[in-house]
Design a protein that fits this description.
By secondary structure, the chain is of the alpha+beta class. The chain contains six helices and 17 strands. Strands 7-6-17-14-9-10 form a six-stranded antiparallel β-sheet, with helices on one face. Strands 13-12-11-8-15-16 form a six-stranded antiparallel β-sheet, with no helix packed on it. The mean pLDDT is about 90.
């Protein structure tokens, strides 16, 4: 018997386009003999032939064996921060734009779920980040991030001044629009746009990527995930910055405050179809190797 007996469904909030997919999933999962819980905030499911059992994300974390996130990568990131501490694996159905993490097409849902319930799937564990903010004697956190922890200037016309440390060893002083600490999962997100490297998800590493640095030699570096990165914000009393996790939760900082980022104790568990290939995702989403096809004579 499959290990996945109770399935949770989470859809992109406020997007009516995910409703038909959620309805189909409700019907298909029940037809396969599984229980279904749907997120409380999901709307438009009145057409479901059987009563919909509603649950909060916290309840899903306790009651579900698998959660299906329908939407884009942002939907999965949001769900993962609530579910990951309980170890619930997540399957992503792509109704977004990029879909680096939500890798199942709506048309393939039934076939994919049938295979997963038969034990035919890949389970992938990914490194997560946690951040702590130090404001004088006050420490807040941990704040969980699947993709990245980012410091950005709140004043658009000013650069930030800050210094970086690794396990107590000084790295450098920086003047830049901000700074990204990225997990391997997040290396294809904001960090990639900032000129950072693509890190394979199996790596125990973090990418440190300055955003639009004043000094062009201020380049991204990769460090081990067992270490702690500390970013200390410098400047005058007017200096303000914002720290965001996955671009979805935010905290403010002022001069003298610091941010510490390290590997989280929990890990993100993703369920993929058996034919999943990380490099196939990169080829399709980043359009690798898609130049014009030339004949041997160059024509």
């Amino acid at each position: 018997m499959s290990e996945f007996r109770t399935i949770g469904l989470i859809g992109r909030r406020g997007d009516p386009r995910v409703v038909p997919t959620l309805l189909t999933l409700c019907n298909e999962i029940r037809a396969m003999g599984r229980g279904v819980l749907v997120e409380k905030d999901a709307s438009g499911l009145d057409a479901c032939p059987a009563p919909v059992i509603r649950a909060s994300r916290a309840e899903m974390a306790q009651r579900c064996d698998l959660v299906v996130a329908v939407g884009g990568d942002g939907t999965l990131l949001s769900a993962a921060r609530a579910l990951t501490p309980s170890g619930v694996p997540i399957l992503g159905v792509n109704q977004g734009r990029l879909g680096f993490m939500v890798d199942v097409a709506p048309d393939d849902m039934r076939e994919t779920l049938a295979a997963i319930f038969a034990g035919e799937y890949l389970r992938e564990e990914r490194l997560l980040l946690e951040a702590h903010l130090r404001r004088g004697e006050t420490v807040s956190g941990p704040f969980l991030a699947i993709n990245d922890v980012v410091i950005r200037n709140q004043a658009a016309i000013r650069m930030l001044e800050f210094e970086t440390w690794l396990d107590g060893e000084f790295i450098s002083q920086h003047r830049a629009d901000g700074f990204i600490v990225s997990s391997p999962t997040g290396s294809t997100a904001y960090a990639l746009s900032g000129g950072g490297p693509v890190l394979h998800p199996s790596l125990e590493a973090m990418a440190l990527v300055p955003i639009c640095p004043h000094t062009l030699s201020d380049r991204p570096i990769v460090v081990g995930a067992r270490q702690t990165v500390r970013i200390v914000l410098r400047g005058d009393a007017a200096t303000t910055a914002m720290c965001t996790c996955d671009g979805q939760s935010s905290e403010s900082l002022a001069a003298g405050h610091s941010l510490e980022v390290r590997r989280a104790g929990a890990r993100l568990s993703l369920i993929h179809p058996n034919n999943y290939s990380y490099f196939n995702i990169l080829r399709n989403k980043l359009h690798w190797g898609r130049g014009p096809q030339l004949s041997p004579d160059g024509n």
